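--- STAGE predict ---
source: upstream dedup step, 1 unique chain passed
mode: sequence only
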Amino acid sequence: MIIHVNLSHPTPAFEQVRSQLSGMIASGALEQGSRLPPIRQLAHDLDLAPGTIARVYRELETEGLVTSRVGRGTTVSAAAPMSAVQAQLRLAQAAQEFARTARQLHIDFPAADSAWRYAWGHLDHSRGLIERDAF
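--- STAGE serialize ---
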């Protein structure tokens, strides 16, 4: 499980981690029953406060995506079905993030479109991940 946090990004670190974990669960990259790292470990790995990760886990639990049990940690629940409106909102957020990143890298639209099409063509469609040897 790889999570990236950009502290200079306008999106709060909490939301960056929450949305990435939520996306991994929705795509099946984190399967039902998978254990998430302990709060302190993930906080240390991402150089964030443990309270930030605890909030992420609470939010994910409220959404029904994970279950936390004392002594057993936090595990992935069955992915909650997403409504069409939620899916469109999530896609719009991901598109905004992609466009923002491309612009920050001074990538023009044709090159960004080419990168998107390349990534789409190299998806492992069963898991929603880019194939390992694509790059």
